């Protein structure tokens, strides 16, 4: 891209200028204009890299002694036809087409790009689709295939949809564990929020999973990659991609009355990183105990419980609240015994309960205490007291 494009065509054998078609100029001079790109495989300028498109169709090319400047990035673009700066939407569309569609050696494609570009760098003029007189005239010559106009209109729609500044998104499922496969979703969105199809995305992992690979977004603009962490700890997943350029590049002629050349083929590089924690898969869970009276089904407060592990060690202890609930969290996954250590007055202790606590899944237990059964009132027994003999000195 570093070699400058030399000059725009004069009334020569225009098929030598690059991909596209020889057409009459606006005055009707046969073969005096060109619809398409300038550069290889054109034979007049050997060694030129890349392709350029005329930005100012109503201006002439420089004289044979003229030349173009180095390729320059333009943050904004002003039409020499209207004298006005084009909108951001038109700027983005031009950058997209130059970057993604303009670097072609195909005559049909180059002609369509030329027609579409003029419609956004010179909007509302005779050179712009959909209704510009000269734009339609250029596409109607017998040397131009009838489908070029439709292709140019399709390029404009595509550019409106997919142009702009791009963002890469990495969606990682929750709960990554060592040795388990996880599907990561990736997409790249344009300024309008549309996902870009057909974009290769390079992935690298570091930390709990290392390695690299490349996936490509499908027709819906989504790519899927599988990752299998090797160990626990932090995992960084970085995605990089080449996307259409968000900038216009051009070469300016030394002759200010000559056409500027829009340069095709640039792209931008974007990246994004997701930071993920890989865990053992045994984070533990919680236990919720609801205490009720077996006879009235009402909540019972101030009932004390202990939770014991398989070795009989107490891992949690608590008391039910006014709603009859005791809740504890952060219990490692496993099998436990729930033991009631103090019941409400008038009620029996409930028998021990086996409790399974799963990974990140709360366990719920309802414990019912039965009232203490009333004991029958003892009946008095008759007692006969015999008179004891007197004792004395």
UniProtKB/TrEMBL annotation:
It holds the Pfam family SpaA. Gene3D superfamilies: Immunoglobulins. This is SpaA-like prealbumin fold domain-containing protein. GO terms for biological process: carbohydrate metabolic process. The lineage of its organism: Bacteria, Bacillati, Actinomycetota, Actinomycetes, Kitasatosporales. Residues 286-359 form the SpaA-like prealbumin fold domain.
């Amino acid at each position: 891209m570093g070699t400058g494009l030399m000059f725009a065509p004069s009334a020569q054998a225009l098929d030598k200028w690059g991909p596209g078609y020889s057409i009459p100029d606006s005055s009707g001079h046969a073969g005096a204009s060109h619809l398409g790109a300038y550069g290889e495989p054109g034979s007049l300028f050997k060694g030129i890299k890349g392709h350029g498109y005329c930005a100012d169709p109503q201006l002439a090319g420089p004289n044979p002694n003229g030349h173009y400047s180095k390729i320059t990035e333009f943050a904004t673009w002003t039409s020499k036809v209207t004298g006005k700066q084009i909108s951001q939407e038109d700027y983005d569309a031009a950058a997209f087409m130059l970057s993604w569609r303009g670097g072609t050696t195909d005559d049909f494609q180059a002609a369509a790009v030329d027609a579409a570009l003029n419609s956004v760098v010179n909007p509302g003029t005779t050179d712009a689709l959909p209704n510009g007189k000269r734009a339609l005239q250029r596409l109607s010559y017998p040397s131009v295939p009838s489908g070029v106009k439709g292709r140019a209109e399709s390029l404009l729609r595509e550019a409106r949809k997919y142009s702009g500044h791009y963002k890469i998104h990495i969606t990682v499922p929750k709960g990554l564990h060592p040795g388990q496969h996880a599907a990561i979703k990736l997409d790249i969105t344009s300024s309008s929020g549309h996902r870009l199809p057909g974009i290769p995305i390079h992935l690298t992992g570091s930390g709990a999973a290392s390695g690299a690979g490349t996936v490509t977004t499908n027709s819906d603009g989504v790519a899927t990659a599988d990752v299998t962490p090797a160990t626990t700890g932090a995992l960084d997943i970085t995605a990089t991609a080449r996307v259409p350029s968000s900038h216009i590049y051009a070469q300016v002629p030394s002759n200010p009355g000559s056409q500027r050349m829009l340069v095709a083929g640039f792209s931008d590089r974007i990246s994004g990183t997701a930071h993920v924690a890989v865990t053992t898969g045994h984070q533990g869970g919680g236990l919720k105990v609801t205490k009720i009276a077996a006879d009235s089904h009402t909540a019972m407060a101030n009932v004390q419980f202990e939770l014991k592990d398989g070795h009989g060690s107490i891992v949690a202890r608590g008391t039910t609240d006014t709603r009859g609930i005791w809740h504890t969290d952060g219990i490692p996954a496993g099998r436990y015994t729930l033991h009631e250590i103090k019941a409400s007055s008038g009620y029996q202790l409930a028998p021990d309960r086996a409790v399974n606590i799963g990974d990140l899944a709360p366990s719920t237990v309802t414990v019912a205490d039965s009232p203490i059964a009333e004991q029958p009132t003892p009946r008095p027994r008759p007692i006969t007291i015999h008179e004891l003999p007197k004792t004395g000195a």
